[in-house]
Design brief:
This protein has 440 residues and is α+β, with helices and mostly antiparallel strands. 50% of the residues lie in helices and 14% in strands. Bound molecules: flavin-adenine dinucleotide.
Length: 440
């Protein structure tokens, strides 16, 4: 059964979300740097966001990624995709709807692997939006290849002592706690020798070397911490899940995180597309509007096709997750939408910049931020190359080599098989390819 329609009751919720995001939340994009959305210590922003969060909760739309048992709506991934593409229009909307990364993924692993005491201390306030959290895996010497990780938690009589460095730990400066992956067993392969720890940010020995920012950001706005752990003492209370299970735990959060980024990217890319169309309709140059010029029309048609292809793949991936209820079975699809998120966002933001002329590259538009974000989408949660490799390997595993010396699409070989199958009909006159074998 194929159906591309939204049921009217759910459409009403989507309509409310769209109106709310556009009128109440998008203004924040022009007022605050985007990573401030995680800064629970910003009084002006909190004065705006707290009542907005309450309005979302009153609509029953808070934390819509979670099942009802965890306080969410239990909508499933397909409906979540339709919601997230509206929330993706603004960097502030996911926080106001209780669905912001990396807190969503961190909540997921705390729910799966946390002890009741850890859930009471960290998960409950996290899901209520009272605190933010940080996931810290990447190290300065490399993120795409965990085999180069050296941050080490050495066993002691009381637990472990954590030493080493982490890099690009998003929101650590505002986080109540860090989820840190550390090597605990150097004799095992990293996939079995690393362990996850919950480290409250103010634990003695946690050093912020600096808060790195994105290009063009004021150094004080950096939200991606360079961290150093100087003999941080950890006990069993800090252990998340089992020792040696860090990769299994990380996979639990990354599948969902990647596909949710893709859902939101549909929304931000559409906002850029709308800006492109508005510009084309408004700007008059060399005798006509941009909208009247065929080269611009070509650009707009191409961008729309890219965006809609991407959106359909995101929706199908979400549908498959609901259907199979197992991220492992949808890994290839998730990899594909992850790679496309970068491509579509970079392309859309680049064209938005270009069609706005000098204004487009200026600091008076959001496009530069969106372009950089597009590139970030190709790195965060693993570079596009790694995801393409995974997808290609999966696709190739499903295909066997050709049985004989010639490929299965070889005309003479195919004609021989076809001739055997339809020998009687081929004795009748009729135009055909010249490869039918003498036996016919
Ligand atoms: C905005 C943002 C937020 C982030 N937040 C976090 C966070 O909260 N926590 C965290 O732990 N990390 C975070 N990261 C880090 C992210 O996970 C890493 O950037 C990513 O894993 C890549 O690691 P790297 O930056 O060290 O690049 P490298 O591993 O050095 O890779 C550099 C480049 O090498 C190429 N490459 C890598 N592997 C291959 C391959 N097999 N074949 C061909 N080319 C390849 C790719 O072009 C890749 O981009 C964040 C990154 C960004 C951009």
């Amino acid at each position: 059964m194929w159906n591309f329609e939204t049921d009217p009751e759910f459409q009403q919720k989507l309509d409310w979300i769209e109106r709310f995001v556009r009128s109440e939340i998008e203004p924040l994009d022009y007022l605050f740097p985007k990573d401030e959305t995680y800064n629970t210590g910003n009084p002006a922003l909190m004065a705006i966001m707290t009542p907005l969060k309450a309005a979302v909760q009153a609509q029953g739309l808070w934390a819509c990624h979670l099942p009802p048992s965890m306080g969410g709506g239990g909508w499933g991934q397909l409906k979540l995709a339709l919601m997230n593409e509206l929330l993706g229009r603004s960097f502030f909307a996911p926080t106001i709807f209780g669905t912001a990364a990396p807190d969503t993924g961190n909540a997921e692993i705390l729910a799966h692997f946390g002890t009741p005491a850890q859930q009471a201390r960290y998960l409950k306030p996290l899901m209520a939006g009272e605190i933010v959290s940080c996931f810290s895996m990447t190290e300065p010497q490399g993120g795409a290849d965990p085999k180069v990780f050296t941050c080490r938690a050495e066993p002691t009589a009381e637990g472990w002592v954590l030493r080493g460095e982490k890099w690009f730990a998003s929101n650590a400066r505002w986080a109540e706690f860090l989820i840190v992956m550390a090597v605990t067993d150097t004799s095992a392969a990293i996939h079995h020798g690393a362990t996850m720890f919950i480290v409250p940010t103010h634990t003695p020995g946690v050093e912020f070397v600096r808060n790195t920012g994105m290009a063009f950001e004021h150094p004080e706005h950096g939200a991606h911490a360079y961290l150093r752990f100087n003999d941080v003492q950890l006990t069993r209370d800090n252990l998340l899940g089992e020792a040696g299970a860090a990769f299994k735990i990380a996979q639990t959060r990354l599948g969902g995180g990647r596909v949710h980024h893709a859902m939101r990217t549909v929304g931000l890319a559409r906002r850029a597309f709308d800006a492109i169309c508005e510009r084309a309709q408004s700007r008059y140059t060399q005798g006509s509007r941009l909208a009247d010029k065929q080269l611009v029309q070509d650009t707009i048609a191409e961008l729309w096709m890219q965006l809609e292809q991407f959106r359909l793949l995101v929706l199908q991936t979400a549908w498959k997750i609901d259907r199979h209820n197992d991220y492992k079975l949808v890994r290839g699809d998730i990899a594909a939408v992850k790679v496309l998120s970068e491509r579509v966002m970079v392309e859309m933001a680049s064209k938005a910049i270009h069609l706005h002329g000098a204004l487009g590259v200026s600091n008076e538009m959001l496009f530069g931020e969106w372009l950089l974000w597009g590139h970030a989408l190709g790195l965060a949660d693993g570079p596009s190359e790694v995801h393409k490799l995974m997808l290609a390997k999966q696709l190739l595993r499903a295909q066997s080599p050709n049985a004989g010396i010639f490929p299965s699409q070889h005309i003479p070989s195919g004609a021989a098989l076809g001739a055997a199958k339809y020998a009687a009909a081929l004795r009748l006159p009729g135009h055909r390819r010249g490869w039918v074998t003498p036996a016919v």
